[in-house]
Amino acid sequence: MRAWGARRVGVAVMPLLLASACSNAIVPAGIDRGAPPPQRPRAAQSSPVSPSATRYTPGVKLGTPATPMPATPAAAAPADATSAVAAGWVAGPSIASLPIDAAAAQRALAAFRLSCASLQKRVDATGLTQGADWAPACVAAGQAGDALGFFRQQFETVQIADGRAFATGYYEPEIRGSRTRRAGYETPIYGVPRDLVEVDLTLFATDLAGRKIRGRVEGNRFVPYFDRTEIENGALAGKAPVIAYAADPVELFFLQVQGSGRLHLPDGGVMRIGYASQNGRAYTGIGALMRDRGLVQPGQASMQGIMAYLRAKPAEGQALMRENKSYVFFRELTGPGPLGAMGVPVTANGSVAADPRFVPLGAPVFLSLDRAEASGLWVAQDTGGAIKGANRFDTFWGAGEDARAFAGGLTARGTAFLLVPRGTLAKLGNGRAPAWP
């Protein structure tokens, strides 16, 4: 689970059909007597870019079609691969041959500078590099004036396994909230429970290095922590601080998926909240469940389309959301943010979430995708409960209506090339991925 959470939030695209007096209802009762939330303009509509997108969801920007660069022929990552080296690798193209624009290079350089301190201290689970390998690039980054020249001089590219990339989008949600419970703001936003225990399994077995679990102590047993249903039914009463209250449980659910966001308060102020911890339960994407069950039509499985279904069918919607047993706990953010898994602010159109077993956190990544807006140079500064496996990425788009509209509908495929310090490929020696026959 990234310092954020795991993915995205969306715009309501259907009328609210049903209200409920229950404080945990999909559509809570009550009318706020304070200031209304800021008005959001309707997102500009765009044409579908895939033949399968036979329906259009209002509020979604699907992006401009593009043709990805071809990958070097290589085998797909083995299903049991737990690192980039185990997945296999081949040398990628020269950085000079990559279509990196100056603005993207400048954003990536700024993000890379923020990551350098942590990048050099972290244990790289990919097997590709060590912290010290990044020192020359980090020194050069502090002095670089020409961003594009910096990346060309300091890095070379590597393709992990077959390089086939799949990318989605996330952003910083903005929802209505209140610091205190009041009419129309009745769904609690919890801080970290006092009885939540995190266990570092590295302390118990070397073959579990890097793995952690969360749970609670019940008598003399360590048991899984309360799941989403139990929490919504009051299991945290007296066990966790309530840092705020949300006006809409559907929006809060997707803010949890994102892991960070902004609460627009009744008095017109803004409270920023960020990921503090999680209940240790596995993340389940309800979009995939809905597609598998035929609950959404082709082209309607975007965040916005999912939210429309949840609002139209409150009882079924609540049951679906509860199938995601993962539950995120928050803290108030008062400094720069939102923060990624490295503890540094993520950059709109510059930061990407990745699986740290396959991409060193802090490393630049070039994505060549079938959506032009998502193609380009990014820096891996975040992780996510749903972002697992080689060449799986989640691109960050910032805050606001445009970010919401684009991130909510983004699914892009193409090719990924990881940027590593010059000399890395020579050090790796013969660890190359087997090529296709």
What topology emerges from the helices and strands here?
Layout: H1 84-87, E1 89-91, H2 102-119, H3 135-143, H4 147-154, E2 155-160, E3 164-172, E4 174-178, E5 187-190, E6 197-200, E7 212-218, E8 221-224, H5 228-232, E9 242-246, H6 249-258, E10 260-264, E11 270-278, H7 286-292, H8 303-312, H9 314-322, E12 328-333, E13 351-354, E14 364-369, E15 376-382, E16 392-399, H10 401-409, E17 411-421, H11 424-428
Parallel strand pairs: 3-16, 4-10, 13-15
Antiparallel strand pairs: 1-2, 2-17, 3-17, 4-9, 5-9, 6-7, 7-8, 10-11, 11-12, 13-16, 14-15, 14-17
Helix pairs in contact: 2-3, 2-4, 8-9
Task: Please tell me about this protein's structure.
This is peptidoglycan lytic exotransglycosylase. 22% of the residues lie in helices and 24% in strands. The protein is of the alpha+beta class and 437 residues long. Strand 10 and strand 11 (270-278) form a beta hairpin. Helix 8 (303-312) crosses helix 9.
What is the gist of this entry?
The chain has 437 residues and is α+β, with helices and mostly antiparallel strands.
Query: What is the count of distinct domains?
Result: 2
Q: Fraction of residues in helices?
A: 10-25%
Under CATH, the homologous superfamily of the largest domain reads RlpA-like domain
The CATH class of the largest domain turns out to be Mainly Beta
| DSSP strand tally | 17
Average pLDDT figure: 84
CATH A-level architecture of the largest domain: Beta Barrel
Major sheet: size, sense and barrel closure?
Answer: 6 strands, mixed, barrel
What class do helices, strands and sheet pairing give?
alpha+beta
For the terminal residues, how far apart are their CA atoms?
Answer: 38 Å
Could you spell the SSE succession in H and E letters?
Answer: HEHHHEEEEEEEHEHEEHHHEEEEEHEH
Radius of gyration: 22 Å
Task: Estimate the strand proportion.
Answer: 15-25%
